[in-house]
Amino acid sequence: MTQINRRLLLAGAAATGALAAISRAAAADPAYSPDADFSGKSVLITGCSSGFGRLTAELLARQGARVFATMRNLPRPEADELARLASAENLDLHVIGIDVTDLKQVNVGVQEAERINGGPIDVLVNNAGIGITSPVEVQDMEATRLIFDTNVFGPHRMARAVVPGMRSKGGGQIIQISSQLGRVIVPYSGHYSATKFALEAMSEQLAYELVPHQIDVTIIEPGGYPTKVWENRNIYSAALKERSMAMHSEGYPQQVARMGEEDGSGRNADPADVARAIAGLMAQVPGTRPLRLPVHPGAKPQIPINEVTARVQTQWLGNSGYGPLIRAVHDS
User: What is the rounded CA–CA span in Å between residue 90 and residue 87?
Assistant: First the structure.
C-alpha cells in the first residue's frame, strides 16, 4: 500500500491545482527506539565538543549512522577523546574541524564529509550555538555580531553548503536546534532570543522552499538543560561586562553584577533527551516530520504559540499560490 505523506500531496496538488489536507495530528510524534538502525545514513552535526552535539554524535553512531562530528578550534582534547571512543567501539564516526562563523571552514568541512561519505550528506544537525547574557542596552556590537554570526549566519552557511547535494540526490533532512526562547522572551538574556527567533523564521521559510526537493526541516526547541553552554556563556558575558561602558551598564546594576556568574543550577533534565529526539525524527517517514518539536520534561510555553502561528500561516496563505508549500509543511 502506498503511504500518503505531504510529498505525495504536493505532487497531486501540482497536477490538479488543489491540495488535500491531512491532519498532522494523525501522524505519530517522533519516538526514540534504541533498536532503530541508521546504517546507510550519513549525519553531519555541528558543535560536537560537548552537550547536545556530543551526545547526538555518540547515539547515532552507536545505532549505525556514519557521523561527521564537527567542532571548532582543532586540535583540542574533546576531538581526541571522541576519536578514541570511535576507535574503541568501532564506530563510523569522523571528527572534522568546522567553525560555523568561518565560511571557508564550512565549505571545506562539508566537502570533506561528502568525500568520505562518497556522496551528499543525508542529515544536517545545526547544533552549534552560544549565549551572551546582559541587558540589551549593554550588549555592544562586538557581542551582537558574534552571537548572530554563530546562531543565525552559522546555520545559514551550513544549510547552503549541504542543500545542493541533498537536492541532487532527491532528498534530505535538516534539524535546527533552537530553544524555547526562540518563541518566548526572558528579560536580560541579551540577544539570545533575537537570534533564536531569527533562526526559527529562517528555518520555517527553508521548510516551505525545500518541499519540492523532498528535504524535511524540523526545528527542535529545547528547554533549559545542564550542558556546558553555561560555562561558555559565562566567558562571553564576563568579557562583555569587563568592556562595558558605564553609561550603559549603570542602569542595570543588579543584572550586570550577575553577568558571567551563571551556573545552570536548578536544571537537572537529561540532555540526552535532545539526542533521542533527533534519532526519533530521523526514524520518521520523510514528509511526515513536524516543523517544530518542543523537547523538555517540564513546561513547554511555546506550544500554544506554535499552534497559533501554524494556523495563521495556513489561513493566510493556505489558499494562495503558496498554499501547496504551506499546507505541505503544516498539514492542517
Answer: 5
Instruction: Decide if 77 contacts 52 (C-beta within 8 A).
Output: no
- The predicted pLDDT at position 262 comes to 78
CA 105 → CA 101, 165, 257, 310, distances in Å? 8, 17, 37, 36
One domain, residues 280 and 310:
no
User: How many other CB atoms are there within 10 angstroms of residue 111's CB atom?
Assistant: 12
State residue 267's pLDDT score: 75
Same domain, 167 and 33: yes
| Residue ranges of the chain whose pLDDT lies below 70 | 1-28, 263-266, 332
Dihedral, CA of residue 318, residue 322, residue 328 and residue 329, to nearest 10: -90
Write out pLDDT tens, residues 174-184.
Answer: 999 999 999 99
Cα dist from 1 to 4, 28, 31, whole Å: 9, 19, 23
Q: Which of 299, 221, 298, 229 is nearest to 263 (CA)?
A: 229
- The structural domain count of the chain equals 2
Amino acid at 188: Y
With residues binned 3-state (H G I as helix, E B as strand, rest as coil), the percentages for the chain, rounded to 5, are 50, 10, 40
Q: Which CATH number fits the domain that encloses residue 296?
A: 3.40.50.720
Q: Which residues are catalytic?
A: 192
CB 30 within 8 A of CB 283: yes
Bridge partner residues of 125 (DSSP): 45, 175
- Domain around 131: 29-301
> What is the predicted pLDDT for the residue at 20?
33
Distance from chain centroid for Cα 203: 9
For 216-234, the pLDDT digits (tens) are 999 999 998 988 887 889 9
